[in-house]
Amino acid sequence: MEKIAKNKIIEDLMPQQFGKQGIIWVISLLVVCAIGFYAYCRQLYYGLEVTALRDYVSWGIYISNFVFFVAISLVGSLITAVLRLTDVHWSTPLTRIAEIIAVSAIAFAGLIIIVDMGRPDRFYNLFTHGRLQSPIIWDVIVITTYLVISLLLLYFPLLPDLKIMIQYKERNGKWLQKLYVFLGSFWKDKPAQFKITEKAIHILSVTIIPVAFAIHTVTSWLFATTYRPGWDSTNFGAYFISGAFLVGAGGVIIAMYVFRTHYKLEKYITDDHFNKMGKVVVLLALIYLYFNINEFLVPAFKMKKSEEEHLMGLFTGEFSPIFWFAISASMLIPILILIFKNGRKPKWAFTAGILVVVGSWFKRYLIVTPTLLHPFLPMHDVPKNYMHYFPTWEEWAIAGGSLAGALLVITFFARIFPIIPIHETITETDYHEKA
Amino acid sequence: MKMNENSRREFLATSLLAGAALAGCNGNPFTPDKETDVKPSGKMVKLLSVDGEIIEVDQAFLKPIPELPTVTNSDARVGIPGKKFAMVIDLSRCKSVKKCQTACNHMHHIHPGQNWIKVYPMQESEKTAPYWQPTTCMHCDEPPCVKVCPVDATFKRKDGIVLIDSDRCVGCRFCMAACPYSSRVFNWEEPKIEKEIAAQPYSCETSVPQKKGTVGKCDFCPDMVRQGSLPHCVSACPNGVFFFGDILEDSVTNGSETFRFSDLIKDKSGYRLMEDLGTKPSVYYLPPVNRNFPFDPAAGEEKKEKA
């Protein structure tokens, strides 16, 4: 990183007020959220009847959206923990982006699972009557654990930055100043404090890796512990984890690009960051591709009767357009773009990131729904509309609302806190100067 | 092995009456109610007393007792002691009349359009013979639905029956994903049932009333079994397809014929569905050989249109 003066760094990285674009962005997100909320009120009143879910396809885009959220949240552990523990320094400016994506995604994963419940009013039963034998309870436990660790990993590195921001009282305004003081006034930049946080972050980084693996492995087990063709797979845990790291990395590239262009952070999120993240995405896409081959080629080679309908539906049947779109958008095309040096320039990397995230969303849909349309016994003695699934407007609105909500959390976070760690950037620059 | 038909009927009748007598034990059921002041009709009815004596009572004094004392939730979760229930479905007798389904839907007040009993037209492959296969809940001994339930809302009893506590179910539908027999249905909206029924407190043994946002399924009618009667599907079937009984007693009956369970399974090569999954169902099937009726593919459809 080129040498930048300390004051300049602070000036560049301090959170900024929403501009015109920002306000339009926030308002549009709020509108999407409001529509989703209205749809959810309808669902609460009329029941899950308002969805297209029926006895065969009893899990639809709510659950695929849940899987998507859990997946994308894994990136927090990848960037903050894995890269940190392996002593990779270039990723420092990206840690907070990754961590806020993780926090907001995992929070909305929890919300969307409540949305999917037939009796959200009995949510407390999970605690009063919880059965530890059920994978759902495992999921509740690991997801809350992951949320707590992620919040701490977001908060601890923020402390030195809070101290810097508290100094700019006039700029902050009354409310933000109060918030900063509340959150960080005890931080005095003492060496002892640094030592403790450093140690805490290190311990949390080690802890979060198994927890991150657990959240997505357990999520995959919600499917893999059943007998159904397409879900009954020992490959599922690894398949889910690899896909999760991929979509998360794609999400980070998108966020990097948006923050960089919007807040003019070219000096901090450099072309080299895109170059390196691009390489990371290629690696992750190849790993995910490998698990996809395992997941589809092996059963397709055998073509067991129970699997056949499901697999053919994906390869050439009803779901084939989405299937091939998801495979190419989330893996093949991004690999093709990002293996070239020019493809790792910000704009192309951003395009690849969008493809990865959109493709991955549909991939989750394909994991959940087609399987349910191929039960062991043929679909029979049910009304006609039970044999198909296309989400209703309420489902789209609620799923869309949850995505908008997650983006809103990230947006407000970037409005309130520096999205690139100020203190760490300063120390990194000092370090480079001395070197 | 066939029991004497008369003696079996008598047995059923007495157990019913004994149940009725027990139910009214807070007062003497044979003395007229003061408030209603019943006059003797002169018609005498023979009854078997609790002591085993045959007694005569005037018909007018017999009060119908609408319901047996309700079983508590904890009793309903334990089951009927010393029993292990099983069902045998004889595929050679089924021609998809679907009286089982109608009776089941009616007695359990199931939301219109939903069925706990399904009658599948089955054909394993192109050249194999088609046949009708009614399915109930399999009441598995290794129930995948119970394994995955996060709140113990669906549970396995000591008598082998798998039930649902609709007052506890959170509606996550994991059990529906887990059940390979597609025997579970969900109340996507407020079930359309009569107000008086809907107002009743829910009982795991009757599965009534069904509740919005919870899962429902065949329950082997433990309320009927407790009274010494057969599940509704068994008694409704005109072709005697369904046999119900206690494996520990080794006998099953469809209401008019009674067999030794082990002999029936042995003689007719009984089997269970999807044995390879290891779910160990309590429902056995007798293969569709020497059939009473030819397979008429229109049978299932016709019923649908009428309904």
Instruction: Extract low-pLDDT stretches of chain A.
Output: none
Q: What's the number of helices of chain A?
A: 18
Largest pleated sheet of chain B: 5 strands, mixed
Show unreliable segments of chain B: 18-29, 302-307
What's the end-to-end separation of chain A, in Å? Answer: 12 Å
Secondary-structure element pattern of chain A, one letter each:
HHHHHHHHHHHHHHHHHH
* Overall pLDDT metric of chain B: 86
Rounded to the nearest angstrom, the radius of gyration of chain B is: 21 Å
Query: Tell me, what is the CATH class of chain A?
Result: Mainly Alpha
Largest interface, C-beta within 8 A = A-B, 45 and 45 residues
Question: What is the oligomer described by this structure?
Answer: heterodimer
Number of domains of chain B: 2
Number of strands of chain B: 13
Question: What distance lies between the first and last C-alpha atoms of chain B, to the nearest angstrom?
Answer: 38 Å
Q: Note the total helix count of chain B.
A: 10
CATH level-two architecture of the largest domain in chain B: 2-Layer Sandwich
What form of chain B results from the Cα inertia axes? Answer: globular
- Structural class of chain A, by secondary structure, is mainly alpha
Stated plainly, the CATH topology of the largest domain in chain B is called Alpha-Beta Plaits
How are the secondary structure elements laid out?
The complex is a heterodimer of chains A (435) and B (307).
Chain A: H1 6-13, H2 20-46, H3 61-73, H4 75-85, H5 95-116, H6 125-128, H7 135-155, H8 159-166, H9 169-172, H10 174-184, H11 191-224, H12 236-262, H13 271-302, H14 305-315, H15 320-338, H16 346-372, H17 393-416, H18 422-434
Chain B: H1 5-23, E1 44-48, E2 54-58, H2 73-78, E3 85-90, H3 99-107, E4 118-122, E5 131-135, H4 144-148, E6 154-156, E7 162-164, H5 174-178, E8 185-186, H6 195-199, E9 215-216, H7 222-226, H8 232-236, E10 242-246, E11 251-253, E12 258-260, H9 261-267, E13 283-286, H10 298-306
Parallel strand pairs in B: 3-13
Antiparallel strand pairs in B: 1-2, 3-10, 4-5, 6-7, 8-9, 10-11, 11-12
